[in-house]
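User: My collaborator and I are trying to settle a disagreement about how two of our proteins should look. Neither of us wants to argue from intuition anymore, so we agreed to look at predicted structures for both before our next call. Could you fold the first one, then the second, and keep them clearly separated?

Assistant: That sounds like a sensible way to settle it. I'll keep them separate. The first protein:
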Amino acid sequence: MTSHPGGDDRARFAAVVQPNLDDAFALARWLTGNRADAEDVVQEACLRAYRAIGTFAGGNARAWVLTIVRHTAYTWLRRNRSASLVMVDDLEAVERTHADPGDQEKLTPETELIAKADAARLETAIADLPAPFKETLILRDVQGLDYREIAQITEVPIGTVMSRLARARRRLVTRLKKD
């Protein structure tokens, strides 16, 4: 029996990508704002992942897949909804000036308020965050990734991840207090 070309790639794809499809869809859903668009993004991301599966060097498969989903989502958003992405030209420089190195994973009045907010209000507030803050918050608080993984996926330093997370949480608290 001869082996089918691409058989190893299919097996590797099944082992690396398929176990992470729920997380991939959740991230795409948050970034695009709706189920149908997220499905399109995940489908395109799967095609990209399949084509690139030979370049996966092992390690954190989830971070690798979510990086592809993130890139695919932003490409899709630029093509289909360019006006919806408002980015600061040098967001990293802005964040460095607002960095909060004391931000630790601890229960604060702010995180308690966020935890107590009803799901619909919270989802709306998260959806209204600027894209870099939204993705960082989702990757940390919804996907449960650590700072190093988020830094790898978003291709920014860990300090920027911490700053974005702190600022996203502050914006959520402010928004939820207003509602």
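The second protein, kept apart from the first:
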Amino acid sequence: MISTKEDTVLLIIDLQDRLIPTIYAVEKILINIEALIRTVRIYQIPILLTEQEKLGTTVPEIKDVLRNFDSYEPIRKLDFSCYRNEEFRRILEQSGCSNLVICGIETHICVIQTALDLMEGGYRVQIPRDATSSHTKEDFETAIERLRDSGAVITTTEALIYELTEKAGTREFKRILEIIKDRRYRLKLGEIETT
């Protein structure tokens, strides 16, 4: 399964200020999610953002990037699975897309329940494993294994960016290279593992 620009939605789940402080490898996932946002905006790929009620708002690092692209329009939810939220389903159906790239937190709760429900509903799901996490490494790794076993495609941020880009030599490719270089520099600067 290859992600195409024409049939993909980026879903960012619950990157909220009350959850973030205790998330495993949080610096890495925020850098990678920012790179994904910058990439999908180049290709005019829709972005869906959720916020779990009573957990605050999206962290400033991500909220500011989304606002720069006029894309900060959170869908508030109570369900762990985004797909069980009526507003989310309506907006997703209106997009006409059948492939979702899912990132955010927590992998073993909202990410996995959303992915499983989406696949049950006939959608294709890709999870960049370096753009999602949980409070513990064990919960994260177990959820990734279950997602893979259930039919989700597990990938990485950089692999997905190149998949959406398709080829070198275009005007967009030059902008993508800037995103890739910035991402790699920031990960290296913090000596953050990429997977």
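Some points you might bring to the call about the second protein. The chain has one domain: 5-189. Helices lie at 26-42, 60-68, 86-95, 107-120, 137-149, 157-165, 171-189.
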